[in-house]
Structures are given as C-alpha cells and as structure tokens.
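FAQ: What does the model actually see?

It sees only this:
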Amino acid sequence: MEDMRHAAGGTPVPLTRVEQVMQAVRERIATRALAAGARVPSIRSMSEQMGVSKSTVVEAYERLVAEGALASRRGSGFFVAGHGAALARGQIGLAGTPGPKIDREIDPLWLTRQSLETDARALRPGCGWLPADWLPQDAVRRALRAIARDPRAQLTDYATPLGLPALRQQLAWRLGQHGIEAAPAQIMLTDGGSQALDLLCRFLLEPGDTVVVDDPCYFNFQALLRVHRVQVVSVPYTPTGPDLAAFERVLKAHRPRLYVTNSAIHNPTGATLAPAVAHRLLKLAEEHDLLIVEDDIFADFETDPAPRLAAFDGLARVVAIGSFSKTMTAAARCGYIAARADWVEPLVDLKLAVSFGNGELAADLVQRLLVDGTYRRYLDGLRAQLADAMGETLRRLTSAGLTAWTRPQAGMLLWAQLPGGLDAAQVAREALADGVVLAPGNVFSVARNAASFLRFNVSQCNRPKVYETLQRAMERAATPA
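And it is asked to produce this:
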C-alpha cells in the first residue's frame, strides 16, 4: 500500500492512520475485491486487520461515506456504494477535484483552474503564489493554537461591520509607512483582495461603464471586470509604469470611470512605478475625473518601497486594497479596503448585503502574527530567498533562450519572452501535458499582444524539471504539426 501522500508543492507526507484505512478500502473497491453493494469489514474486524483503534476505522468509514465511496445502513454497517455514485479514483486529482480540461480556450480562468486543480505533484512556475514550504506554516499553527486557548478570542460569532479594530489600527500604521494616511475608521476588512475589488466594482461601476487596465495586467482583473459587465480597455505598460501618451488617448477616447492597477511590484511584469509617472498619471486622472483602485497585494515583498498613488493622492480619488494571501496564508482570507471617509459607510452596507461581514478568526490570526514580530522576521528571510531565486531563474531562462522584459527590483514575478516568435499558449499546453503549469502572456493581455511572453514565479522555478520541460515544450511547439 502507498503510505505517502503529497501536500501542496509535491512534498511527501506520511499517511495518517485514518488515511491508511481509507486507502485500503479504496484499493479493495478498485480491484473488485469489494463489489458494489458488498458489506465492508466490520469496525472490529478492520481494526484488527489494520492494527488501529476502532475510532480510527469509524472515522475512515465516515469519510468514505462523505465522499460517496461507502453507504451507511443503520443497524447493518457500511456497504460499498454503487460505482456510479462517486467519481472513480482515476478521475480525481490528488486535491480531490475533477481534473481540469486542457483543451479549453486559454483565458484568465483557464490559468486559475490549471494552477488550483492540477495534480498536487505538478510543478507550477506559472502560478501566482509561494510554495507552501516557503510560507510561515509553523507560525500560523502557533497562532491558531494561541487563539484556541484564548477565552477572549471570537470563534463562533460574526465580526463587527468594519472588521477587527486591532487589525485595522495595525493596518493604518502599516499604510502610514508607505505615506498613505488612513485612519482605522477609513479601513474596512474583507475576505481577501478579490472580495475587496469585487465590492469596489459593485460600489463604483454600472454595467456598460468603461474600465482601463494595464497591458499586460493581472489576469483576474479581467475576469472579475467581465463579471460586472463593463467595457475593458487597456494601456501598454512600460518598466516605469503605464505609457502616459497612450493613457491620455484612452481617457479622451473612452472616458473610463475607473483604472485598476498595481503600483508596487506590477503583476505580471514585476516592474515598479516611477515617481514622475505617478504624478503625471494622477494629474490626468484629475483632469478626466478618473477613479483608481491600487492593488497593493505584493507590498511586503518590497525591499525599497515604491511610490504609491494613494500616498500622492491622499485617498481622494485613489482607493488602496491589499491582503495577506500571497505572503502569509491563503487559507485564512483577510484583505482590506482603505478609502476616503465618506465612502466607508456605503461600502460597509454593501459588504453586509452580499456577505454579512467577514470572519474574525482570520483577522485575529493575521493580527497576532503582525504584532509579535513573527511576520517581520519571516519577511526578512523571504526577501533574501526571493532575491536568490530571481537571480537563478534569470540565469536559467537566459540559457534556455528567453529574454527578460525587465529585471524586477523585488518580488517573485518575472516576465520573459520566448525566442523565435514561439506561441506561449502552445508552449504552455505542451508543458501541461508533462505536469508543468506555465502562464502564457495573452492571459494577461486585453489587446492579445503578448503571445510570445510567459510569466514566471521564481519561487516555483527551483526544480530542474521546470527547465527540462520548458525546453521540450519549446521544441515541440516549434515543430510543425
């Protein structure tokens, strides 16, 4: 029997006793040693066979019932469910979800699904998050244990409408380090950065409005904006920020309501906004009555802080959003919106209407890690680790014939061009067949002018297989069908 499973990132982890019992039952079903409708061994019998406690067998059987492999009959025991009742084991990825279709159109949600649904042992240089073993998992566990022991911790009730006051106070101080003056009363907690942007779209936009984004831009900006049925136009991005001449033309031609961007560590390029570009951009926004959402989700990767539009603007027409999903944990969703004071109350009402608030447990977890020094010390090591990974990834990609668009000052994202006009989408399909998830450029481009680019996450590029597979995928993509 296989006695190991794979956690996120492919790390081997021993099976628990419960999982061992479940695996044994699954194997008997798969080999037809237990046919559909057959009674499985009694709890006492299975306990003796596996050398585990009866409670372990009970939990294993109950989990198999929950996934549809077994059925429970009161007073009779457990029986094998009909084989059509549950997905066959071979149709399920290790994460327990149906495997993604690789032949669908490559679009923003294609990349999201490949990154989240592919077999847990797959390599993901195209995803947008750190490997699990780079994140502060031990610190998160300690904080969760501390919360569980704290009689003051709120584990069962709804959070206050704005969110945990102590965390909002801490966020106000942290925003101040970037020159953004926001009182705690101007900060509303959300369930991650995506909810923050969704709420702002609901608040600021009507169907048919026009929104401008960078080209390339974070692919989920496009997906979310389409959900809100707005028109999306794009402006070419440069290593110092958006192309200002093109930006002005778009403002005059389309009169957009909103601009959504990253200032610090731009996604996908890794570029940094220059102060002169930021000032001119805000001047154009004022002239054309443009609102701006500044997504600052990668802020904590920075070594030297970049300019913030929200700092120059004073939160007059710029809204700052962020979260801790990329740097602390994506499992406890905790983000925020920092906005002008007169927008906060209607934003709170909107949040209550669509989600009835956010979880205080996640906010409490983030707050504890921020204030006890754990997070600060972790970030010091993480930044150095990312700098090393950036240098190594640049070297390996250059050797493979790719060209970096710019060398990022910090963070984990690298935008690189394939040689010889290769189609990144085809290269990504070829790599996916070998268990490597790449991020083709046009997923990030509204204008579809990044066909030869790939976005790489340097923290996910530390396996030789990444480069070996990339090389093979490039060779196959270059070969005429």
